[in-house]
Amino acid sequence: MDEEYDAIVLGTGLKECILSGMLSVSGKKVLHVDRNKYYGGESASICPLEELFSKFGAPAPDESYGRGRDWNVDLIPKFLMANGQLVKLLIHTGVTRYLEFKSVEGSYVYKGGKISKVPVDQKEALASDLMGMFEKRRFRNFLIYVQDFQQEDPKTWKDFDPNTADMQALYDKFGLDKNTQDFTGHALALFRDDDYLKRPALETINRIKLYSDSLARYGKSPYLYPMYGLGELPQGFARLSAIYGGTYMLDKPIDEIVLGEGGRVVGVRSGTEVAKCKQVYCDPTYVPDRVRKKGRVVRCICLMDHPIANTKDALSTQIIIPQKQVGRNSDIYVSLVSYTHQVAAKGWFVAMVSTTVETDNPEIEIKPGLDLLGSIRQKFISVSDYYEPTDDGLQSQIFISQSYDATTHFETTCLDVLDIFKRGTGEEFDFSKIKHELGDEEQ
């Protein structure tokens, strides 16, 4: 550990592994350390099944669950947008060579006590049971506008400036009712609350375009999920970092982040060894004095032996319950994966219900999501604190990721990672810098 590094990354959560890969690819000398013996941190996948039961203090699973080693259960499951930032990063960096993905079969939204497929094109808009006939036509016109919209061609803006006018104004332009605004903002643009309505419309237009572009790639839903669970992702990025010269150390206690003049980081100490560095990137658990608690997230992992009703027996799906539908300030997310992803024994399903905690009784808050699942053989509930850094890290050169939120997709994770990279390096991540011929490097 006595060498000098450009950057030391602490923790092997997915965000930290992506950052270490990006920094290594950008020519930085990176040391990546984790106090744990395993990859993934709080975003790890648990295998075998017995370990999951013991983690939550439950008696060991009986024989009906099949072989324990056939299970890989994510503690924080999330889907990837097929055309989103993370998939672009995986493709550009060649990490896809270590991973296999499957398309998620359905994307649904909850309205008035039942779930409906999220409509994303003109045909689906006209067939959707979410809206009445006249509203369908208005929504169809809105979707056509979004599809034809080109940021660099003001003619496609149709007398509406999306850089200055807010999203509420765009909804009003097309006469969309509150219900339609609700599922558009939360199930298509994937916003977690309604603050977006007051921000420039361009942001929402781009998010809806991302959703429909992602859907166009695979057809059933815009989401992808890796075989064997999300635990494969950090390891893929760890390999990438190693190819570009990054060094990894697991099971290494971190005793101190060493500061020099002006409170700037100069190294990291483990026992008597100090590794010198110019920057540190880490998750909130390594720097409790530099983060603040922003809230809490409740998650419930549910093991089931059947798919979710009214999803056409989909073997994988996402359901978003917009906040207003259940009188809340934040959405409830439901995700389902199954044995077809090699994360459960044959015939078994793993569902997750999650939301941002708003009361003293988190378990009651996820009830609308649990009610959609039908019979649950076993459930594990966890409530975790959500932390964010107290400063931008520019003075100390310690750059801290936010905790994982309640969403069941990776878009917020990617935005956090790209923001940290920009703060740390002073530039946007340049995807074109990455060598595409990674195969030559590994020979």
From TrEMBL:
UniProt-listed PANTHER family: RAB GDP DISSOCIATION INHIBITOR (PTHR11787:SF8), RAB GDP-DISSOCIATION INHIBITOR (PTHR11787)
Protein's cellular compartments: Cytoplasm
Organism: Tribolium castaneum
Similarity comment: Belongs to the Rab GDI family.
Domain of life: Eukaryota
MF annotations from Gene Ontology: GTPase activator activity; Rab GDP-dissociation inhibitor activity
Coiled coil: none
UniProt function note: Regulates the GDP/GTP exchange reaction of most RAB proteins by inhibiting the dissociation of GDP from them, and the subsequent binding of GTP.
GO-annotated biological processes: protein transport; small GTPase-mediated signal transduction; vesicle-mediated transport
Main subcellular location of this protein, as a coarse class: cytoplasm
GO CC field: cytosol
Keywords associated with the record: Cytoplasm, GTPase activation
Lineage of source species: Eukaryota, Metazoa, Ecdysozoa, Arthropoda, Hexapoda
Protein name, as recorded: Rab GDP dissociation inhibitor
InterPro entries: FAD/NAD-bd_sf, GDP_dissociation_inhibitor, RabGDI
